[in-house]
Amino acid sequence: MKNSQFKINLILKSGKVQSFRRKGERWEQTSTAGRLHPATAEQVLNHMLPVLAKKKRNVTLEVKYYKGLGGK
Question: Within a domain: residue 70?
Answer without folding.
Answer: no
